């Protein structure tokens, strides 16, 4: 069967519809879409303008059928016999994942982890603008890291009144996590990327993604162990 011949869908959803579709997608599919998005930008930068589901599948190590199923929610992104337009597909996946929008992000806790995140250059190109960071340590307040100002956490409300952040990155010690998280919600943050090794309880209207690097290492060790 010709993969390119199947790389076609019929409808063309609006950004609002795409966002609703995204909300209903299984987590695994969202994870794969994020990988497609990254790979599409990579091949686009290398000059590739068209791609079929077999090639896409190879890039992220899934079957062409899985690629077609994942992309079927995006509307008419494929053309029979040609495949997908790389730029168009990347745009639509970006829209579906919310990175077509510009998100204002604040970070709390400028320690070894927060410092590294502030210096990372990759957030902006995906639409995540790190507006300001916060800490309570006077030695850090007032400094600039990666071009981003470190403000006094005690001034959170005043600073955020003008910024109106959408998302918060939590990189404080675990003991401080619950209080800091609830203050972030108080200034209007509706999504938190939580690096602390603690499950924080927040209103259901606030999305929380926990990034537990130690647990990921455990999963990796288990996978290596199982392969032996
Ligand atoms: N460093 C890593 O590789 C790593 C990996 C995984 C998870 N984590 C988790 O990420 C969090 C941060 O780790 P780290 O190594 O950067 O810690 P760190 O101790 O180096 O930095 C914590 C920072 O938070 C600030 N802080 C403390 N209380 C605060 C408050 N109430 N409001 C604002 N700022 C406050 C401190 O002044 C400090 O600058 C921890 O919960 C840790 O368990 C870290």
UniProtKB/TrEMBL annotation:
Similarity section: Belongs to the transcriptional regulatory Rex family.
Keyword presence, tRNA-binding: no
PANTHER family linked to this entry: REDOX-SENSING TRANSCRIPTIONAL REPRESSOR REX, REDOX-SENSING TRANSCRIPTIONAL REPRESSOR REX 1
Domain CoA-binding as annotated: residue spans: 98-199
Record GO biological process: negative regulation of DNA-templated transcription; response to redox state
Molecular function GO labels: DNA binding; DNA-binding transcription factor activity
Location relative to the cell: Cytoplasm
Gene encoding the protein: rex
Protein name as annotated: Redox-sensing transcriptional repressor Rex
Record-listed NAD(+) binding positions: 109-114
Feature: DNA-binding region: 35-74
Entry keyword set: Cytoplasm, DNA-binding, NAD, Repressor, Transcription, Transcription regulation
UniProt entry tagged with the keyword Transcription: yes
GO cellular component entries: cytoplasm
Domain of life: Bacteria
Main location: cytoplasm
Function: Modulates transcription in response to changes in cellular NADH/NAD(+) redox state.
Quaternary context: Homodimer.
